[in-house]
Amino acid sequence: MPKMKTKSGAKKRFKPTANGFKHKHAFKSHILTKMTTKRKRQLRGTSLLHPSDVAKVERMLRVR
């Protein structure tokens, strides 16, 4: 039986941590001129995935 492959899109977007999965914010790639500076600043960095989405990402990454 071959090994199960992980979803390559999820592999690029989520990184497992001790407390869940971290991910980048959306809406930060292009057409940023119309967005306020405050909004762009708030979208910087990474955050933890919402607990309701953890099961879906674990299934895509074949964690458990």
Automatic annotation (TrEMBL):
Zinc-finger recorded as keyword: no
NCBIfam families: rpmI_bact
Stretches the record annotates as Disordered: 1-24
Keywords: Ribonucleoprotein, Ribosomal protein
Protein name: Large ribosomal subunit protein bL35
Gene (UniProt): rpmI
GO cellular component, one term: ribosome
Coiled coil listed as a keyword: no
Similarity section: Belongs to the bacterial ribosomal protein bL35 family.
